[in-house]
## 1
Amino acid sequence: MPSNPSKDYNQIAFALEILRLLAEKPRRREELTDFLSIFVEQHGKSADTADIKQKVTRTIRKLRDCGIEIQSTTHSPYKLVESNFPLLLSTQQREALATAAYFLADMGFSAQASHIQRIGNLTEADIPASIKLDFSPPVDYSEKKVDIIVRQLQERFEQQCRYTIRYESKPGEGRIWDIDRSELRLHEGVLYLFAFIPDWRSWRFDYWHNIDQNHIFRLDKIASVGAASDTRWVSCDFPTLKVRYRMSGQLANYNPRRKDEVVIYSDPEGKFREIEATIDYWFWFRQRILKYGSNVEILSPQKLVEEIKKEYHKIWEKFLAKENSNNHSST
């Protein structure tokens, strides 16, 4: 037999519904009252607006007494800041959460890590002893200044209109940049603002728009974020470039693990594989290719083939110069 809706309703159910609604987003008292009136009616109870408002006030007071932090002022909505609702976790779940918190803390996200630690009431003993990290990020991204910058940037991402930043690559040397489409990217343990610069001119490519217009900015060097303009972002996507390269030697059986890479040809004898990658930032891709050393050869586009050749030539010249210097000093 189906359960009686009125029997499923009690003060705990009412409090849990308030928490559920506030967990979705901050809500004003009137909005909470409207949702909770529907909730009460669905459980076969009368929904008097004045009575619901009083219940909301009383219940939120009780939730605060239980250690659940809910912010509100006269002219602002109720906001769930932190919930201490108890969680029952298995040993594996505790280890998984503790490992995630450990990773975040070592990558410079100490505030986010502490949130996870409080959620699971975790200690260092919950972290598997076999895991050791060494990210050494340049900054703690939970520092107040950086946290404010991140929040402002996230607002601009939602607005999807052009804005400006003041970027100080060196102390006292600031420049204003016009920013179009943008997002946050974590690369090798460092968090960047990845952005399309609409008025940037490339020396590599003679067409617009191109990957040289994609720039990176370290968050700790962004001094300020300007207000959103009335100009919408120019494109739904960042400009990209397809690069084809051959893996051989120790990487002859290379299996792509990045979403932008696909195998387009495998040598029947297993001597090499040809990969096509869709890249949107040349410098990061160049770093990766140079790490592979003699196990990789760029096939196209030709401009990038020549650029990598020049890079290897410079490395070889420096090596020879060092060898000659050592030989002279030993004679």
## 2
Amino acid sequence: MGIALWDRLMTSRADQEASELQRESEGRECGRICDCSPGDTVTIAGTVRSITFRPRTELPSLEIDLYDGTGCIRVIWLGRRRILGISAGRRLVVTGRLNQVAGEPVVYNPRYELKPMVA
């Protein structure tokens, strides 16, 4: 059994996904979350890890956690309760100004591009 095959078999699914996301980002002009600083305008390609829907009694906003293989950022669209096509597991590219809220990286109201669903 070759070393490359052995490494692939012994690597966790999460590690495989992280490596794939990093390779995908290298082909575009996308940054890595781990290299970004607050105040930067960033373009990040990643996978939606989770979605938070706000109750109707609160101001409308849609929040997702986007993972790029190096880290996770919170992406928030204010004034939106949902965006068609955005769901957990969906890949997308977001572009916007990186902020920091309570020590966590956040991008508000970014431009976004939905990527094809992975089989």
